[in-house]
Write a structure and sequence with these properties.
Elements (H helix, E strand, L loop, with lengths): L1 H35 L5 E7 L2 E8 L1 E3 L4 E2 L6 E2 L4 H14 L24 H6 L18 H9 L15 H15 L3 H10 L23 E4 L4 E3 L9 H4 L2 E2 L1 H13 L5 H7 L12 E5 L2 E10 L2 E8 L4 E7 L6 H12 L14 H5 L3 E5 L4 E8 L2 E6 L5 E2 L1 E4 L2 E4 L4 E7 L5 E8 L2 E8 L3 E4 L14 E2 L1 E2 L6 E9 L2 E7 L2 E7 L8 E2 L4 E3 L2 E8 L7 E6 L2
Antiparallel strand pairs: 1-2, 1-12, 3-4, 5-8, 6-7, 9-10, 10-11, 11-12, 13-14, 13-21, 14-15, 15-16, 17-18, 18-19, 19-20, 20-21, 22-23, 22-26, 24-25, 25-30, 26-27, 26-29, 27-28, 30-31
Length: 539
């Protein structure tokens, strides 16, 4: 009997180890597949019930030095910082140094309507305070300048009545932490979180960090081009997004929250309640398979990050990426699918030449639902963008068939009897939606024109050259001293300026400055990889 029991126990252990090994293999294969199609480049950690299933780096840490990412790589995590700010605030509440119902006027008596804005409003993005990232003219981001700038702005809505993501609100929380503790925000985070948790690879001044594990962020990261971003000063994002970290340190942070070692269970349960718009106290509140998931993503120039947790099952997922190609929320969802034995797609693509891809570029009109789909080639890959939505790289599955992961759909291009690809079929959610190729025009907009920047008025139209396709001409146009840009089909989704003052067109580039006069303007898209323009004044 004892022998039989021992055999059964051994069999059970073998099965458990096999399942764990299989899960690890699936996770690793998934991340490796995303790295190979250039939709992930960074480090990832996945844990379940306190056990780390995957902790690994993928892709390039620094292209110039030919170093690769590993589990020690250090990344800017941007808005994940908000969870740390929230944790410190809740710690101060537990220490009776602060109340969630305290008014902003308690700390800044002169702040307009400060007596109607609470700490809870700041935590939950329900304060109505203007988000400074939408535009500001502050000489610096000191407390004095920041408050003066915000005081001059009207509230977006009455506090508590609505929701709007406001980095400014979290900025104010950082200043309030300093007022209460008598030490800087950064020192307070170290005191209450970094030091007790031994998060030795986390900090704030990423720009001046000297560490062999520091990653380089890339705004463009393709086989052909690697464009580095210059790290900004940590005073920029401050308590709304200044922290840098590693996957291992963020796992320590998860563990302390899971064990309630920094703040109490009651505080966290309140933080995890959806206040408005699926947002709690510094956490985005969603669900997966009926289980509450708390998370926060972060992203700015060169970096994309996500920290997701399912407290009920002690699951932690950390995805840190040092380029702008990754959709970290989709990656997180795929990882969860593996952990919960749900079906998922592993990405792949076949390589197609630019000549093949160019056959599909253009504009397609979809009748139902009414939208315009723009297809372009960027860095040797096909890119799709529906009007009013963000661009997405689509992965070639066959020569004329592409996977659009963000939409969980496929794009199929069909050609007519003349061999021209003039039809697009969107396969999504069990439906087939047809789009027909259209030939709209390029236009001119800006303060140098009589129409100004008025987006609702038709742009001044170019005419395509009858003999050379891709060459657009606007002749004998009188302009004032001012600025201009070029738009496609009166749509801001595709607009060009010039970042280098080199007559090379840059997507979403800087406005082009011009003096008063009469001009002939040519847009040359004959080489879609390097579009250019000329602006010639008539004598």
């Amino acid at each position: 009997m004892k022998k039989t029991l021992l055999i059964l126990l051994t069999y059970g252990l073998t099965q458990a180890l096999f399942c764990q090994h299989t899960t690890q293999q699936k996770l690793d294969a998934l991340m490796d597949a995303y790295c190979k199609v250039n939709k992930f480049n960074g480090s990832v950690l996945v844990s379940q019930k306190g056990k780390i299933l995957l902790e690994k780096g993928y892709g390039i840490k620094n292209f110039q030095s030919k170093t690769m990412n590993d589990e020690h790589s250090i990344f800017q995590i941007y808005s994940i910082t908000k969870t740390f700010t929230s944790t410190v605030i809740l710690k101060l509440v537990e220490l009776k140094k602060l109340s969630l119902s305290d008014k902003l006027s308690k700390f800044y008596p002169e702040f307009p309507k400060g007596d109607s804005i609470t700490i809870e409003n700041l935590l939950t993005h329900t304060s109505g305070i203007y988000d400074y990232t939408h535009g500001n003219n502050m000489p610096d981001q000191s407390e004095k300048s920041f408050l003066a700038f915000l005081a001059a702005k009207l509230l977006d809505f009455s506090p508590g009545s609505n929701w709007s993501y406001s980095n400014s609100g979290y900025y104010l929380l950082g200043f309030i932490i300093k007022k209460i503790t008598g030490i800087s925000y950064e020192m307070a985070v170290r005191k209450y979180i970094f030091t007790p948790l031994e998060m030795k690879n986390s900090g704030f001044d990423f720009k001046n960090l000297s560490n062999k594990n520091k990653t380089t962020g890339y705004s463009v990261f393709s086989e052909e081009t690697k464009k580095e971003v210059i790290p900004g000063d940590s005073t920029g994002p401050f308590s709304a997004g200044a922290i840098y970290s590693t996957v291992g340190d963020l796992f320590k942070y998860h563990s302390c929250l899971q064990e309630f070692s920094v703040i109490k269970k009651a505080s966290l349960e309140k933080a995890y309640l959806s206040f408005k718009n699926n947002y709690g106290y510094g956490w985005i509140i969603k669900s997966y398979e009926g289980k509450k998931m708390v998370s926060h993503s972060g992203g700015f120039e060169g970096y994309r990050s996500n920290l997701a947790r399912i407290p009920e099952d002690d699951i932690c997922i950390v995805v840190l990426n040092n380029n702008e190609n990754a959709n970290v929320e989709i990656l997180t969802k795929k990882i969860l699918d593996i952990l919960y034995n749900k079906p998922y797609k592993t990405p792949f693509e076949i390589k197609l030449s630019k000549e093949v891809l160019k056959k599909y570029t253009g504009t397609y009109q979809v009748a139902t639902p009414p939208l315009v789909m723009y297809i372009t080639v960027e860095d040797g890959r096909l890119v799709a963008q529906a009007s009013g939505q963000q661009k997405t790289i689509v992965l070639a599955q066959k020569e004329n068939y592409f996977f659009a992961e963000e939409a969980d759909g496929f794009l199929e291009f069909l050609k007519n009897e003349d061999g021209i690809f003039n039809e697009l079929i969107i396969h999504q959610g069990g439906q087939d939606i047809t789009g027909k190729r259209i030939y709209p025009t390029w236009g001119l907009i800006g303060t140098a024109t009589s129409k100004g920047w008025e987006a609702n008025m038709p742009d001044i139209k170019f005419t395509e050259d009858a003999l050379k396709r891709g060459l657009w001409v606007l002749s004998n146009i009188t302009l004032s001293t001012g600025e201009l840009k070029f738009r496609f089909n009166n749509d801001w989704n595709i607009n060009y300026g010039d970042n280098g003052n080199d007559t090379i067109l840059d997507m979403y580039g800087e406005n082009i400055k011009i003096e008063a006069g009469t001009y002939d303007i040519i847009l040359d898209f004959s080489d879609e990889a390097k579009p250019k323009y000329s602006v010639n004044m008539r004598k």
